[in-house]
Specification:
The complex is a heterodimer of chains A (319) and B (323).
Chain A (H helix, E strand, L loop, with lengths): L1 H28 L16 H10 L6 H14 L11 H36 L4 H15 L2 H16 L16 H39 L2 H8 L4 H13 L1 H10 L8 H6 L5 H10 L3 H29 L6
Chain B lengths: L2 H11 L5 H11 L1 H26 L19 E2 L15 E2 L10 H36 L4 E2 L2 E2 H14 L2 H11 L4 H10 L3 H14 L3 H8 L4 H9 L4 H24 L11 H8 L8 H28 L8
Antiparallel strand pairs in B: 1-2, 3-4
Classes of the chains: A mainly alpha (319), B mainly alpha (323).
Chain lengths: 319, 323
């Protein structure tokens, strides 16, 4: 077991090195440099550009720049080009903002997708199955922000839900209870909207997993023993259908960064997706690279955890 | 005396339906997929006609700016005294209204459908080419050793690496850093979505490469590229076709998301995505500017998804709902 985990970690570290090299190359080889973001500024002279380039090692060959980046990343010295703030602190702050949004939307996804998927699988080809299939296809076909706009108009008009930012301005002095209620209230709409596509995809997946399990021999055996139907479905069926979802969970973790760019922009949510978007606009290479690196670490960590959990949960897997 | 027997045998051995016919019948039975399929065919014809009528034989011109006619709701008849007569829309009605510059939204949508579909198809075409190439290499030459690792390990590790990037963030980074152009968008979307296809092709190749027809082809000294691309790829194409259909839908959605952030196709080229992105500023004054392209994208992407699902069922008998 220990060997298995160590080998997995080792393989992932090698992958991580290659990922960082590729993303570094992609960002640095693309045209457009931070020093050239504002070419129309008359006060930027050629020697200023040269000075900026030298200060950020941009005049070095690309492999030297890579070494500088790795050194700075691991000594915590990495500074943003834009405002000279330490990158790790910046990302950590935004990560803490993104995390509650991610957790709540994950909870919505998993708590809704399972009942819908199981119900659809048990009553295959029923009216419920057909409608839920169609609705989930419709939901994944919506352009994300179009659906967000429709929902915002509807929700704001009916429930008066706030849509901008993480908290109401000027409530810093309010009692704790009021402040946390305010946070939850601001969280509602972004979390629901980022969960919608996930619910559609996951409920389809739950359905197909359940369908695969439902015709197995052990299900018939369980029924033949005279067990109540609920126990057959949830105890014998669902438990076996659950295994692949350990992997699914690992694969959903990177959504923390990539999936949130659009929604965080719509809701002015100061999270990681927005940080990345602003960094891209400003050609802030250290932030872009570190975010990419962070995303890759999350993916690899997610798959590692799911591999290990899979091995723990499924006794058929031997090391 | 033997003749009738031979004929009789030949008749009995011919399958009643060809493979394609059989798949087609299964697809037909899935009502939604069948309707979506014809919807898409009609859409392609419309997009082609739109291309011809907006660029070659100009019936409706999406570029005419009529500042006195801005924000007219759909189905407004042309009744302006300021705008010259030759700038009037076809049949004298703004079918889908006008936008903030008085341009005919219908003409822009028609022009945009060709561009949007082109983005979808070219991006998927690139993904298919790269995916089939790498998947085929990994599947066919998988056991060949290069120095200390096999070709299969090398390629599949590379696929793993590509899968680790958050795809939308990567697309956004590259598109934002490159000069804005419609070709860059197609290429970047294509180059970031081939991994699934490569995996499918590899999996199919692993089971195909030891089959008799491949052995037979090899024994005739047919060149290897011919075995891979002419003999094996057509046998591995079914799952690829399904994911390509859904890939077109994803590419259209990605383009619209990029347009929202301002990195999509730049004006004067119109796409559904950038018409909608421009329209969101006027959501309350001129809701049709956002709703028309929004629902168009919804229906087209839905049709692609349902069609892909129908194809998946047709190719994979295990998923069929009626046994």
């Amino acid at each position: 077991m220990i060997n298995f985990i160590l080998r997995n970690i080792w393989q992932r570290i090698i992958l991580l090195v290659f990922i960082s090299i590729i993303s570094h190359a992609v960002v640095h080889l693309a045209p457009g440099e931070p020093a050239l973001v504002d070419p129309s500024n008359p006060r930027m002279k050629a020697e200023d550009v040269q000075r900026i380039r030298a200060a950020y090692h941009l005049d070095e060959p690309i492999h030297i720049q890579y070494i500088y980046w790795v050194r700075d990343l691991f000594t915590g010295e990495l500074k943003s080009f834009k405002d000279n703030q330490p990158v790790m602190e910046k990302i950590w702050g935004k990560f803490l903002n993104s995390l509650p949004l991610f957790i709540v939307s994950m909870m919505i996804i998993w708590f809704l997708a399972f009942p819908v998927g199981i119900e659809a699988a048990i009553n295959r080809d029923s009216k419920f199955d057909r409608t839920s299939t169609f609705i989930s296809y419709a939901l994944i076909s919506f352009p994300g922000y179009f659906l967000a706009y429709l929902l915002i108009i509807f929700m704001v008009k009916t429930f008066n839900i706030p849509v901008i930012g993480m908290r109401t301005f000027g409530l810093e002095e309010a009692p704790l209870l009021l402040r946390s209620m305010d946070r939850v209230w601001h969280l509602t709409l972004p979390a629901i909207i980022s969960a919608i596509a996930g619910i559609a995809v996951l409920s389809r997946y739950v359905r197909s997993q359940m369908l695969e399990v439902i015709h197995q021999d052990y299900m018939r055996t369980a029924r033949a023993k005279g067990l109540p139907e609920d126990q057959v479905i949830y105890h014998h069926g669902l438990r076996n259908a659950l295994l692949p979802f350990i992997t699914m969970f690992g694969l959903m973790i990177p959504g923390l960064i990539g999936g949130s760019v659009i929604f965080e922009t719509i809701f002015a949510w100061p999270g990681m997706g927005r940080l990345g978007f602003e960094a891209i606009l400003a050609r802030d290479f250290p932030v872009i690279l570190t975010l990419n690196f962070f995303a890759a670490v999350l993916v690899l960590l997610g798959t590692l955890i799911s591999d290990v959990l899979y091995a723990v949960a499924d006794p058929r897997i031997k090391f | 005396m033997n003749e009738p027997i031979i004929n009789f045998e030949a008749d009995a051995l011919t399958p009643s339906k060809g493979l394609f016919q059989e798949r087609w019948d299964i697809l037909k039975r899935n009502r939604r997929a069948y309707v979506s399929f014809w919807f898409l065919i009609v859409l392609f014809v419309l997009a082609l006609l739109g291309k011809v009528f907006t660029q070659n034989i100009i019936l409706f011109d999406p570029k005419i700016v009529r500042l006195s006619e801005k924000f007219l709701p759909p189905l407004t008849p042309f009744a302006s005294t300021i705008t010259p007569k030759e700038d009037a829309p076809l049949v004298g009605i703004y079918l889908l209204g006008t936008d903030e510059l008085g341009r005919d939204v219908f003409a822009r949508m028609v022009e945009g459908s060709f561009v949007s579909l082109t983005i979808g198809f070219v991006a998927v075409g690139i993904a298919l080419t790269v995916g089939i190439f790498f998947g085929g290499l990994a599947g066919y030459y998988g056991r060949v050793k290069l120095a200390f690792i096999t070709v299969d390990t090398l390629i599949m590790r590379f696929v793993d690496i590509m899968l680790c990037f958050p795809s939308f963030f990567l697309i956004l980074t590259v598109v934002a850093l490159l000069p804005p152009s419609i070709y860059n968008i197609m290429i970047v979307i294509g180059l970031t979505s081939w991994m699934g296809i490569a995996r499918f092709v590899r999996a199919e190749f692993l089971s195909l490469r030891d089959q008799d027809f491949v052995l037979a082809a090899r024994s005739q000294a047919i060149p290897e590229w011919r075995i891979i691309f002419i003999h094996m790829v057509p046998n591995a194409i079914a799952p690829v076709l399904v994911s390509a259909t859904i890939g077109v839908a994803t590419a259209i959605l990605t383009e619209s998301a990029l347009s929202f952030l301002g990195f999509g196709v730049q004006p004067p080229d119109a796409t559904w995505g950038n018409i909608m992105a421009d329209g969101r500023t006027f959501l309350f004054d001129a809701p049709w500017l956002m709703f028309i392209p929004g629902f168009t994208i919804l229906f087209v992407v839905l049709a692609f998804n349902l069609c892909g699902e129908g194809l998946r069922e047709a190719f994979n008998p295990k998923l069929r709902s009626t046994p």
